[in-house]
């Protein structure tokens, strides 16, 4: 779930974990049980797959909350996403249409759309996913491994390693009570260097029968000043024109 606007917006897609430590079950669940329970916690496979598009609007807070931008993200199956952040009449855009990624970065003085490199669109590929790393992991060409439990801000969370077919790795942390994602640590190689991004997810709300996070906090691992997204409204199965995600054919205004 990461945007890289001029204000170093990191998209995608997170939560405030519980402030107490839960008691873990006497018998540890299997990997298959964890994945199945995660899908059920989201609303069940049928509801998850029936959610064909998702629009979330709210506020993006950067620079320790001193800068507030209007935020909108639209996703559409199978793998399309567009994220916008607006401040003082300028709108930064990142989009992926299932094949190509592009961006408009007015905060860096770049007001025309620019195509993104294969490295740069890696985060957009994950942002475009409607369901997160665990749903349909086999179909995505990923491999998964259960790594036991690990403390996440006082919560002993279940930890699952997801290795994607492009080599990127997600460490997915599931809340032991609700089995929903509370943190995703992503490792990928960009421009020849290892990049680690930590995303916390929370305040899940039901949209068309599916629980989606409405509180998102993301940034470099160990960074004390992560970007925060507070979602005010989430809408499922909204009509979205595919042109929304495609590289613009006319110059941006």
Tell me the domain tally.
1
* CATH T-level fold name: outer membrane lipoprotein receptor (LolB), chain A
Share in helix: under 10%
Strand order of the largest sheet: 6-5-4-3-2-1-13-12-11-10-9-8-7
Helix/strand structural class: mainly beta
- In percent terms, what proportion of residues is strand? over 45%
Rg measurement, Å? 18 Å
Polypeptide structure, described:
The chain is mainly β. The longest helix has 12 residues, at 31-42. Strands 6-5-4-3-2-1-13-12-11-10-9-8-7 form a 13-stranded antiparallel β-sheet. Strand 1 and strand 2 form a beta hairpin. The protein has one domain (31-244): Lipoprotein localisation LolA/LolB/LppX (outer membrane lipoprotein receptor (LolB), chain A, Clam), CATH 2.50.20. The model is unreliable at 1-22 (pLDDT under 50). 9% of the residues lie in helices and 46% in strands.
């Amino acid at each position: 779930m990461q945007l890289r606007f001029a204000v170093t917006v990191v998209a995608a897609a997170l939560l405030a974990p519980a402030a107490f430590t839960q008691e873990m079950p006497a018998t540890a669940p299997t990997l298959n049980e964890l994945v199945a329970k995660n899908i059920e916690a989201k609303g069940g496979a049928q509801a998850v797959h029936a959610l064909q598009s998702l629009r979330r609007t709210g506020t993006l807070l950067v620079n320790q909350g001193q800068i507030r931008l209007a935020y909108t993200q639209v996703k559409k199956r199978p793998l399309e996403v567009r994220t916008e952040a607006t401040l003082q009449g300028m709108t930064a855009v990142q989009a992926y249409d299932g094949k190509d990624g592009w961006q408009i970065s007015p905060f860096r003085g770049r007001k025309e759309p620019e195509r993104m490199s294969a490295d740069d669109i890696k985060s957009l590929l994950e942002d475009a996913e409607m369901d997160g790393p665990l749903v349909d992991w086999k179909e995505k060409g990923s491999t998964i491994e259960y790594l036991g439990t690990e403390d996440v801000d006082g919560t002993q969370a279940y930890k699952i390693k997801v290795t994607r077919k492009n080599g990127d790795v997600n460490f997915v942390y599931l809340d032991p009570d609700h089995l929903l994602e509370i943190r995703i640590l992503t490792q990928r190689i960009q421009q020849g260097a290892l990049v680690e991004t930590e995303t916390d997810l929370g305040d899940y709300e039901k949209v068309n029968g599916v629980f989606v996070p409405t509180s998102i906090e993301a940034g470099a691992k160990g960074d004390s000043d992560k970007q925060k997204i507070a979602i005010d409204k989430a809408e499922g199965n909204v009509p979205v024109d595919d042109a929304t995600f495609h590289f613009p054919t006319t110059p941006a205004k």
